[in-house]
Amino acid sequence: MSLRWVWVLLLLSSTCAGADEMRAQVAAAMNSRFPHTMRALGNVTDSLQLVASEGGVIADVCTRQIQSANEALIWVRNQLACTPLQELADFFRSAAKAVSSCNAFLAMRADTLPVSMVHTSEWALMTMKEMLTQLSLDAEAVEVLDRDVSETSGAPLVASSESSSTESKVVTPSDFNDEAIQGCATIHPTNCQFSVCGKGRRLPLCAFGYAAGVTGGLMGKSYVVTNNEDDHKKPSPGSLRYGVNQGGQANGGVWITFARSFEIRLTDLLWIKSGTTVDGRGFNVTITGRSMVLCGVSNVILHNFQISGVGESDTVHIFAGSSRVWVDHLTSKDAKLGLVSVLQGSTDVTISNSHLSNYNFNMLLGASDFDKQDADMRVSVYRNWFKDSMQRMPHCRWGRCHVLNNLYSNWGYYALGARVGGKIYSESNAFVARRRVEVTPWFNGIGANYDNSIFIKSSKDVFLNGTTFHQFLHPHTIGSHEQNVVYKNNKMYPAVIPPETLNKVLPNCVGAVFGYRLSQCST
Fold it and tell me: Signal peptide span per the entry (predicted)?
């Protein structure tokens, strides 16, 4: 019997009971959910291992999805007793999306694989998806029933995820109203973060684009990184990983700063939780070794640090329905699969003021032609320097990508690309050609052999050194008024400087800014 029906029967049997008695019965039933869920999680991770052992098919196209889903589930299993039901539901749903993507890849390659391998993998993936979906529904149902009981009895059974530690330094919106920050709305978003307007926990005031309104760890506890150690099995107090583990809405969130400059070599993926700010201002903070991963989380700020040398992955991996994420003043390079990626139903992301340089792939927004959930994806790509990369600056699938006030230099194959309904609004950017002059993947003679579902439009861009820009404006992609409206609220629109000046301004101001570079940055 699923958890939902256990709860329904319990509530029906408690109709005539007093509120205190009903709460006691519900609390007892909640305790019974843990063995049930842990058994299911064990089955899910066993299925993941089975799929991963099926050979080249999964290794080629699903390794990252399976690894991410598996590690997320292991984390949930270890944290089960102290994780809010809604957060559990979000994790289960995210993992279901990940394995669903694997199944789509598998179907695409089915005709080239042994029948037994296909059937075994399909069975494992489908079973896993069904179990994850049911776990998500059960957790959500329990959350709703708990809320109903709370309204009857006057107190919730599960501790509110909005509460924060008594040791937390809490900053409320009322703290933003002092005279010192009047006029901040007009300051350029490249410098706001280092001015009185964005000082300390005022940083969210500087957010813009689709991530406008993000608060990160604003209401959470303060945590200071004091050492560069990283033990992913048993993080030590003072380490970055220990601080990241303090995050999550259940704990009220966390605002992480650094005691001094550090080079931190991660020994495993760093899983960022909801309600987290990683604030590297004031020091030279460099992260290497492994990626930062945002799986099904919301309300995250990653600000002013360097991340590179992560090997086979991308540097910042945002996926599985993550939302309201601001990546700002990042210096990122040297990653085989790219730098900042936004995938699998994630949305309301702003990537800004960053120095992004990679030998091949740069920024991927939407990973698969099968991920139709990315039709709701909205990403602002603002005032970054895309340098010396071959392609994907960004590449946009399905969703809406606003590319504003960026500097492009020395792209190889293309700078801006899209597939399967992707929409790129290129505005007030500066393109400085070197290896190739065309911005998009357009070639002479391509004729009608291109994806006519995409939309790539240029407005007020500046083209230097002979740059050309082929717009993709098929009649059926430009018909509606909504198609040409980037933001529904003009307050989300970032400030724009003349694109003719970007080549002089951005090299001094983008990426992690500290010390002498900070004094040189001006707009």
Answer: 1-18
- Whole-structure pTM value: 0.69
Residue 443's CB is within 10 A of a number of other CB atoms, namely 12
Q: What is the largest CA-CA distance in the chain?
A: 80
Distance CA 28, CA 455 (A): 55
Cα 332 to Cα 517: distance, rounded to the nearest angstrom: 17
Question: Rounded CA gap, 126 and 138, in Å?
Answer: 18
Which stretches of 366-493 are assigned E, i.e. beta strand?
A: 378-382, 385-387, 395-397, 400-404, 407-409, 417-419, 423-427, 430-432, 455-459, 462-464, 472-473
* CA 149 to centroid of chain Cα atoms: 34
Residues 422, 403 contacting (CB under 8 angstroms): no
Token pair belonging to 87: 């957060």
User: How deeply is 365 buried, as exposed, middle or buried, from its count of CB atoms within 10 A (0-12, 13-18, 19+)?
Assistant: buried
Report, as residue numbers or ranges, the catalytic residues.
392
**Per-residue pLDDT reduced to its tens digit, 37-78:** 555 555 555 555 555 554 444 444 455 555 555 555 555 555
489: pLDDT strictly greater than 90: no
What is the mean predicted confidence (pLDDT) over 177-184?
48
CB 513 within 8 A of CB 304: yes
The CA–CA distances, whole Å, from 207 to 215, 328, 349 equal 9, 9, 10
Residue type (1 letter), 139 = A
Separation of alpha carbons 506 and 383, rounded Å: 8
Rounded to an integer, what is the distance from CA 388 to the centroid of its chain?
Answer: 24
Q: Is 394 helix (H, G, I), strand (E, B) or coil?
A: coil
Over the stretch 471-486, which tens digit does the pLDDT of each residue have?
Answer: 998 777 765 545 667 8
Torsion over CA of 430, 520, 326 and 501, rounded to 10 degrees?
-20
